[in-house]
Amino acid sequence: MDGLTHASDRRAGIGKAAVPANGGIHLNSRIVIDDEFLSCRSSVRRFRRGEVIAGAGVLVDTFARVQSGVVSASTMLPDGREFIVEIIPKSGLIGELEVLRRQALSLEYRAGSNCELHFFEGRLLRDMYASDPSFREKVFSRALARISELELRIIANAASSLQSRLASTLLRLSAVYGKDAANSGDELIISQNDLAATLPASREKVNQCLRRLRESKIIDGGQGKIRILNRKALEACANAVSVK
């Protein structure tokens, strides 16, 4: 289906058919598969920044590939705050592990920027998984790598100051945006609310840290955009090294 989806379709989940179900929160490991699905039949949908692509707790039998833009995957913390677990770049997949496991989505997916997604039937993924040993190996290796990355982030967050965590997050997002050839990775399109939810931290404290980075001429920008001016200084800040 070309064009924007209707609000009711977006809330229901990925694809036309969706059956609400209760699913626990788990590490939603990302499989980034280069070109396996590009020649397969798909439907194309476009979303504006901030629109919900799929809601948590929904059982679906389609998965999506990010063709352009970025998508955020989030959950709610016990205190009611949103936590953005991951920002999915171009070529990343959404809902692939849930389709393989026949489980409900555990995260909510929103358009982090204006984006285009290609949607595929779940049986395509299950058939490839069942018939292609190299594909199964890729699924496992990508999932393990993603879990390892999330574990390292959790450990780093526990031991670092907010300023250091913010700098590390900006560098990580820079690598995500840099996956798109149209973006050098130096300009990040992200609201302060989303940036606070990614850390997670309060918007007020994040604003204070951003202001210090601007005053040091390390970053610049506003209105939902952050531009990295001094990458070396940002890396030093992420490593809690004092720079002049």
UniProtKB/TrEMBL annotation:
Domain spans labelled HTH crp-type: 160-232
Key words of the record: DNA-binding, Transcription, Transcription regulation
Tree of life domain: Bacteria
SUPFAM superfamilies: cAMP-binding domain-like, Winged helix' DNA-binding domain
Keyword DNA-binding: yes
S-adenosyl-L-methionine as UniProt keyword: no
Gene3D superfamilies: Jelly Rolls
Cyclic nucleotide-binding domain segment(s): 45-146
Protein name: Crp/Fnr family transcriptional regulator
Naturally occurring in which organism (per UniProt): Rhizobium anhuiense
